[in-house]
Amino acid sequence: MCRSIYASLMVVLTMCLMNVLSFVSADFESLSTSTNSLPCTHFEEAESSHIDINILALSFHNVMARNNKDVNLYYNNQKDGVYLEPGQSFVKLDNVNGRKSAVMYWNGNCISFFAYDPSAEGGHQKIFWNIKEDGLYHSWDNNSWQKKKSWTFNHC
Ligand SMILES: *[C@@H]1O[C@H](CO)[C@@H](O)[C@H](O)[C@H]1NC(C)=O
């Protein structure tokens, strides 16, 4: 008598456990398919499979306060510089082959840097530079910024 109660209890427990397991696996499946359909994933797939043109877009944005002097930017040893007033930006298109150097002058200070260095940019073809009173900031999405250099006085 006692044994048969245990036996039926085991059956009930086993079925219950199987239900839980199938529920968990179904849930996991729906979770992984919904992750696959996130727009972000599609965007990345589309980007990596469709961009095979080696164009580089470099954005230089002077984000200093209005009362500051212009920044003078010389791109990759070009003779003619570009003047950037506070608030102004400049976009340079180039190829992705090799490093691109740049020098900026502002108010007696300067910064020399690689506006593009393939070994540092991890395949990104859009590079954003923000120029501020305290130095130069780098971004891949024009949104999250990392400071790369400070202005140096008379030392370029
Ligand atoms: C980057 O963001 C700034 C501020 O949101 C905007 O004014 C600027 O046009 C953007 N630059 C590019 C190249 O999209």
SS content category: alpha+beta
Poorly predicted regions: 20-46
The CATH topology of the largest domain: Immunoglobulin-like
Bound molecules: 2-acetamido-2-deoxy-beta-D-glucopyranose
Please state roughly what percent of the residues sit in beta strands, choosing from under 5%, 5-15%, 15-25%, 25-35%, 35-45% or over 45%. 35-45%
Topology:
Blueprint: H1 2-36, H2 39-50, E1 55-62, E2 71-75, E3 82-84, E4 89-95, E5 100-106, E6 109-116, E7 126-132, E8 135-139, E9 146-149, E10 152-153
Parallel strand pairs: 1-7
Antiparallel strand pairs: 1-4, 2-3, 2-5, 5-6, 6-10, 7-8, 8-9
Any overview of this molecule?
This protein is α+β, with helices and mostly antiparallel strands and 156 residues long. It has two domains: 2-48; 55-153, Immunoglobulin-like, CATH 2.60.40. 30% of the residues lie in helices and 36% in strands. The chain has two helices and ten strands; from the N terminus they run H-H-E-E-E-E-E-E-E-E-E-E. The protein has helices at residues 2-36, 39-50; strands spanning 55-62, 71-75, 82-84, 89-95, 100-106, 109-116, 126-132, 135-139, 146-149, 152-153. It has a five-stranded mixed sheet with strand order 4-1-7-8-9, with no helix packed on it. A hairpin with a 2-residue loop joins strand 5 (100-106) and strand 6 (109-116). The longest helix is centred in the N-terminal third of the chain and has 35 residues, at 2-36. Residues 20-46 have low confidence and may be disordered. Bound molecules: 2-acetamido-2-deoxy-beta-D-glucopyranose. Residues 59, 91, 142 line the site of 2-acetamido-2-deoxy-beta-D-glucopyranose. Residues 1-22 form the signal peptide. This is S-protein homolog.
